Structures are given as structure tokens and as C-alpha cells.
Amino acid sequence: MAVVVYKDYPLIRSWETKVSAMPNIPRGERGFQETLKYILTALKNKTPINTHITIEGSRSNNTLEQLYIRLRPTGFVKKLITGWELSEEAEKWLISDDDLYLAAILSANIRYFSEILAVLRKGPITSRAIQDVASNEYKLSWKTKSEIHARLNWLKDVGLIEFEDFSLKYSITDLGKSFLSVVGYVKSEELKRYIDQTLDEREVPISAWALEMCKMNEEDLRNRKTGMGYYPSGIQDIHNTILDLNYSPFIVS
User: Fold this and answer.
1) For a Cys staple, 150 with which of 22, 95, 110, 156, CB 3.0–4.6 Å?
2) For each of the chain's 253 residues, which pLDDT tens digit applies?
3) Domain check: are 95 and 119 in the same one?
4) Within a domain: 28
5) Containing H/E element for 128?
6) Which domain of life is it from (predicted)?
7) How far, in Å, CA of 218 to CA of 213, rounded?
């Protein structure tokens, strides 16, 4: 294993552009890292995207492309005009096999990942208590514990936290404390500017074209053409498409 130094860790996205969901890939018997390595290696080897793969210890049966789609928001893969490709971060992780660098990728792209380490630094607590902090302090109101458990399993697999069976509590490891001191975290009291930057606004300037639209009736609005034009992958996926184009070596006109 080659250790990746901190200065080569991925750029941390702002809270509002981070994703809320962990990559939904099978964990299997050997942990998330091995599954991820299998998927990314298949992409590197140009395995056909319609290939169905099975992971030992998991009953899921997905095509590679289905798994690429799930990994895309967290920055492991990107879809270009020429097809799916590994991100620079994914390439670096495959070469280094450094679990801390993998954790840094997740922390840079996903909300409430390193923040869990900060919560556990105060002392061991249950998954329910961790979810309560997510809901009450970070305004992440998940209806089930699936997202919390996914984060906890990833953190366990990379050695940053431990689980105590008899108390049902999670605790941070020394490695987790060291990692947190390097990557940092977003404090809940800092979130006001992320959640709603307009809370203190008293007046909102309106452009002339917006005022004209307010005067339009329902029929006029229905007859308006969309102003977005054509986007690869569809208008519903504009955000990811723009992110991928920003990383793309190709210039699209």
C-alpha cells in the first residue's frame, strides 16, 4: 500500500453541493472497499457495461452501469461523451490502496461523514443518537436508519470507528481521531449560511423579465419553450452532467 499524503487529498466540496446519499453498492463479506475495488477495476479494464456482477455475501445482481450510476455522485466515476471513465481520485485510490484516502474521497463529497467522527469524539453513542444529531443539528431528516447505517459501515470498514455489541454503541478509533484532525468537518452552527442564505433578507430585487413573466397567464406559460436546450442524459440529470463536463478533457460546443 502506498500512503497518499494530505496535500493530495481531494478538494472538499461545499456543504450545499455535497450529496446526502452514500453510494448504494453491495457490501458483501469482505467490506465496501473490496466491492468498490472490483467495480472500479472492471471499469479500468473496459469490461462491458451491461455485465452483471455478483459480490460474495450479497444477493444483489446489478449491471456494471447500474453501479457506475450509483457511484457517480460521489466522484468515483464520470460519464463523458466517449463513455464511463474513472475519476482521478478513483485512479489514485486504486493505485495506492490507501483506505484513508478512500475515506477522504467520501468525506469530501458526502454530507455527514466526517461529522459522525466529530460526534463520536465526544463519547460512544448508539446509531439512534447519531441519527438524532443528523436530524436535529444538521437538518438531515432521513425517515429510516439506512443512510446512517451505510455511513457507519463504511467508517467501520476503513477502521475509523468501532462497534460494541453489548452496549450497541459506536466509538471513534485513534485512527479516526487522527483522520478527523486532518480532513476536518462542518460544524452544525455553521450551517445557517448553507441551509438558507436568504434568512435575513428583507427585500429581494426582481429583474424586469421576471416581472413580465408574473403578468403572463397560464396559457402563455404553457406555450413557453424550455430555455435549457439539450443536455446529455436529460434535463433531470443536469447537475451531474455539468460536473462531469467540468472534469472532462474534451471541450463540448
Assistant:
1) 22
2) 788 998 999 999 999 999 999 999 999 999 999 999 999 999 999 999 999 999 999 999 999 999 999 999 999 999 999 999 999 999 999 999 999 999 999 999 999 999 999 999 999 999 999 999 999 999 998 889 999 999 999 999 999 999 999 999 999 999 999 999 999 999 998 886 555 556 666 777 778 877 777 777 776 767 776 665 555 555 555 555 555 555 444 433 3
3) no
4) yes
5) helix 127-136
6) Bacteria
7) 10
**Same domain assignment for residues 100 and 36:** yes
Let me know if residue 217 belongs to a domain.
Answer: no
Domain at 149, CATH number: 1.10.10.10
Domain total of the chain: 2
Asked, for residue 201, whether it belongs to a domain, the answer is no
Name the grid cell of 179.
483522520
User: Which pTM value belongs to this model?
Assistant: 0.78
Cell 452501469, residue located:
65
Residues 94, 146 share a domain:
no
Q: Is 245 within the bounds of a domain? A: no
Tell me if residue 97 falls in helix, strand or coil: coil
DSSP collapsed to 3 states, 161-218: EEEECCCCEEEECHHHHHHHHHHCCCCHHHCHHHHCCCCCCCCCCCCHHHHHHHCCCH
Domain interval for residue 92:
21-105
The DSSP output letter for 73 is G
